[in-house]
Fold this sequence. Notes:
Layout: H1 3-11, H2 19-26, H3 30-42, E1 47-50, E2 54-57, H4 66-75, E3 82-88, H5 92-97, E4 105-111, E5 131-139, H6 149-164, E6 169-172, E7 176-179, E8 182-193, E9 199-207, H7 213-216, H8 226-230, H9 236-257, H10 260-269, E10 276-280, E11 285-293, E12 299-303, E13 308-311, E14 315-318
Parallel strand pairs: 3-4
Antiparallel strand pairs: 1-2, 4-5, 5-9, 6-7, 7-8, 8-9, 10-11, 10-14, 11-12, 12-13
Helix pairs in contact: 1-3, 2-3, 4-9, 6-9, 6-10
Amino acid sequence: MATRTRTLKLLADGAFHSGTAIGSKLGVTRAAVCKTVQALSAAGLEIESVSGRGYRMAIAAHPLERRTILKALVGVGISDLDVEILEEIDSTSRYLMQNKKTAPRVCLAEAQPQGRGRRGRAWITTPYHNLMLSMSWQFAAGPAAAAGLSLAAGVALARALETYGVRSLGLKWPNDILVDGRKLGGVLVDLQGEANGPTRVVVGIGVNGYLGARAAARIDQPWIDLYRIMNSAVDRNRLAALVVAELYRMFEDFSARGLAPFRRDWERRHLYQEQRVRLDTGETSVVGTAIGVDELGALVLRTAQGQRETFHAGEISLRPA
């Protein structure tokens, strides 16, 4: 285990630990401890340093533990998943897409400096505090069989967060999780395959566990994190197990029946359902009432002329009545 991770585990309780005590426990010098703490701070972690007392995390962190996550998954009947935890990776989804194994796999990262959001945006995080994971699956059919998958994954993520204790969350088409109008998490889907199959799919999940001041200053949209919702540090291992379990069940159901088992649940959670909205597609803007999604996950709008129109991509926002 890397010295950085071992140091973080010691600081994770939120109490003060002297550099000497940390060095003694890890078998490294006090200077090495100081250098490690500086590296963690440079990565965006908020670590207090007080002369005579030592170091402590401003907000307690829960490092990811493979054994804990696997034990929780086995407890709900899931024992055939390959779970990997990386210290740092540019993108967990890209990492899985480059791997040609067909069996379901999960990759989690403590730090992901090049995480991706929708439409080429960056997913900004604070290392060791947020949930960044991807899960791969293989469909026997071609890419068309995955139509609507991002919506089903959004439902799975919402269910996991609700089980964790989050209330009053909702979905924004096509793949955002919002609480009180502020973004908590999102879903990104990557596909790889021929028209006639098989198709490898990777679903990427990002959830704001805790965003430090440095990361928050870079975000240009309303946001919220689990720490501020629940007023406590996030048990990322429990949350990771909940999310992975829901994704696993989602993939099983989706493989058999597509979006159908999730469609009404998604519409029930859609924050803009039956609301007047504007959809920006990049080329045009359309105003209408959001009345649901079709069997492929496309947004269905009823225009002012009473026509039904479907859209497979775009940015949706509320429009004053």
